[in-house]
Amino acid sequence: MLDRSYVDFARLYVLAQACAFFITRAKKNMQFYRRNSRPVERSAELRCDQTILLTGVRTAQRYPDPLRRIHDFDAEQDSYRALHPVESIRLLMGQH
């Protein structure tokens, strides 16, 4: 898990190209386009499970592949948004 004051999308893209799995927090001002959404079970404190593409001028160039955005709610932390590469999740789940 990477937790920094900024998200280095170029570094994350290198990790994803090496078939590495990562999770990082998404910043509130991140610009993205939602490609699709999957149903979530609210009792598990999940708020959304989406496949997104980055749309920021530099971020879209630095990470051109889809990302999976998961937003769950933690009352103690107030909120949490996570990003990870779509392909890594498919490999972990045995989906090709």
Count every helix, treating DSSP H or I runs of 4 or more residues as helices: 3
Oligomer: single chain
| Overall tally of domains | 1
Total strand segments: 5
**What's the alpha carbon Rg, rounded to whole Å?**
13 Å
Fraction of residues in helix: 10-25%
Which strand-content bin applies to the residues?
A: 25-35%
Global outline = globular
Structural class: alpha+beta
Strand arrangement in the largest pleated sheet = 1-5-4-3-2
Low-confidence segments: none
Account of the protein in words:
This protein has 96 residues and is an alpha+beta fold. Helices cover 24% and strands 30% of the residues. It has a five-stranded antiparallel beta sheet. A hairpin with a 7-residue loop joins strand 4 and strand 5 (80-85).
Short description:
With 96 residues, the protein is an alpha+beta fold. It is 24% helix and 30% strand.
What descriptors fit this protein?
5 strands, 3 helices, 96 residues, globular, alpha+beta
Topology:
Layout: H1 9-17, E1 24-25, E2 32-37, E3 46-54, H2 57-62, E4 67-72, E5 80-85, H3 86-93
Antiparallel strand pairs: 1-5, 2-3, 3-4, 4-5
